[in-house]
Amino acid sequence: MKEKTPKKKLQAEKREQAMIEGIIEGSPDAVGVVVVRLECGCRKMAAVSKDGEPASKIIMYRDQATSICEKCKEDNGSFMRIRESFMHWVEPAPSPEKQKEISLKVLGTTTSH
Ligand SMILES: [Zn+2]
């Protein structure tokens, strides 16, 4: 059974995966991690609880750099500059309905303002 999905599903990259695992380890309440990719290449992540509330502090980092870029230091990774954002679920992932609910709560408020 092969499925062709025209819409590319956003998935964590290897480096992001490592960060995500670290966040989950430090956040026992997390059901997932929100991953935000900024235009400048920096990343923003935070664990999310089953109620769609933050379950950790927001972590910002930049690949192969000791710190985030100047722009992010200035505006703290403004929502205006988000390129992509998605939820990475902790296994076992919540039900599709619950995923939708949490995503909406978490990502819905980050993309609209
Ligand atoms: Zn940046």
Can you describe this structure?
This protein is of the alpha+beta class. It has one domain. 30% of the residues lie in helices and 26% in strands. The chain has three helices and four strands, in the order αβββαβα. A four-stranded antiparallel β-sheet has the order 3-2-1-4, with helices on both faces. The radius of gyration is 14 Å and the shape is globular. Zinc ion binds next to helix 2.
Question: Helix and strand layout, with pairings?
Answer:
Layout: H1 14-25, E1 30-38, E2 42-49, E3 59-62, H2 70-75, E4 82-89, H3 96-111
The structure holds zinc ion.
Zinc ion is lined by residues 38, 40, 42, 68-69, 71-72.
Short recap of the structure:
By secondary structure, the chain is α+β, with helices and mostly antiparallel strands.
